[in-house]
Amino acid sequence: MEELNPSLRLLMGPGPSNVSYRVLRAMSTPLLGHLDPQFMAIMDEVCQMLRELFQTQNRMTFPVSGTGSAGLEAALVNLLEPGDTAVVCVHGVFGQRLSEVARRAGASVVNVEAPWGQPIDVQELIETLKKHPQAKLCAIVQAETSTGVLQPLKELGAFMRGGETLLVVDAVTSLGGVPVEVDAWGIDVCYSGTQKCLSVPPGLAPITFSPKALEAVNRRRTKVQSWYLDVTLLQKYWGSERVYHHTAPISMIYALREGLRIIHEEGLEARFARHRQLSERLAQGLAGLGFGFFAQEGHRLPPLTSVYPPREDLVEPLRKKLLSEHGIEVGGGLGAYAGKIWRIGLMGETCQPQNVAILLDALGREL
Fold it and tell me: What is the DSSP letter of 336?
């Protein structure tokens, strides 16, 4: 069997994004034990940098061992018990996934929906929450990866602040690419993934729990249904007690540490501006080539642009040709929009001027 030698790709799909050589180098450094004092110091560094990225003071901020969907499960299975009510916002695949996991946790789910490509109507959501004051949580996707919609959260957080209902936010495609202000917006649980705007390989799900959320977990009448994702156990490993829970993915923690260092060196405001400016440049170029936009204007997600190619018969053939002949990956649509739209990612390491130029040049040649 030959040595592994995958093709070089320009990853401009919905994730993963390209990874800095610094992150790959960090992953190749010698292993430590997961209870080694040196590794525990690294754990503390990662947690502190995650707090800065989430813009929170939450003590329980750490990376779940698993992809972004593990972060989603960790958020819901810790908070929900059979019989609880959950208000869930659905305007794409990942809102649907929130709703499904909430049901599997035994909750009575009240969906608030919007057409794909549009944000949730915040006033409609607030009225729904008023009708269901018993709701344990309200879950919403900030950056819907299936549609490229950026959901406003500030008004919703202001309404929910001080109430009993917990605000849970999916920031898988937004963290590190657009502002995520956990404390300022009154978010109680927020989770993400490493493979999008953090430009770290998939395998970890950064998550943060507010003190209010942890109190709700500690008041549970039943044990958390998942032993692996039980935050009451995980906080003993990631906290000061350092009680063994599971063998942490050491090399992935190394990778996340280096990815967070890169973000820290650039600065959040500069990073957000880069994603915003280059997504505008990409949009202008795509419009000039005859592409149409799927996500509602004013609510388009800078790290992920969803578009209609100039002709429907080009959607899949042209996407496949970009990969096979140009080494460029762009994503297709999901659900009802499979074979109808593209999802073009400009995330983290991939979000560079030369990559925008390379994609537009390749499209220009093919069209």
Answer: G
Closest residue by Cα to residue 116 from 136, 138, 134, 96: 96
Q: Name the average pLDDT for the chain.
A: 97
Contact predicate 332/315, CB 8 Å: yes
Q: Are residues 227 and 283 in the same domain?
A: no
Domains held by the chain: number: 2
Whole-Å CA distances, 184 to 161, 209, 318, 337, 342: 10, 14, 43, 35, 34
346 occurs within a structural domain? yes
**Burial degree of 314 (CB within 10 A; 0-12, 13-18, 19+):** middle
Domain extent, residue 97, equals 21-264
Locate tokens 């709700």: which residue?
216
Q: Do residue 226 and residue 169 come from a single domain? A: yes
**Tell me: the pLDDT tens digits for 284-297?**
999 999 999 999 99
Residues 115-143: tens digit of each pLDDT? 999 999 999 999 999 999 999 999 999 99
User: SS3 for 130-191, per residue?
Assistant: HHCCCCCEEEEECEECCCCEECCCHHHHHHHCCCCCEEEEECCCCECCECCCCCCCCCCEEE
Q: Looking at beta carbons, which pairs linking 241-245 to residues 24 or more positions away fall under 8 Å? A: 242/35, 242/40, 244/34, 244/35
Give the residues of the chain that fall short of pLDDT 70.
Answer: none
Give the per-residue pLDDT at 99: 98
72 — phi, psi (to 5°)?
Answer: -60, -50
- pTM for this structure? 0.97
Do 77 and 154 have their domain in common?
A: yes
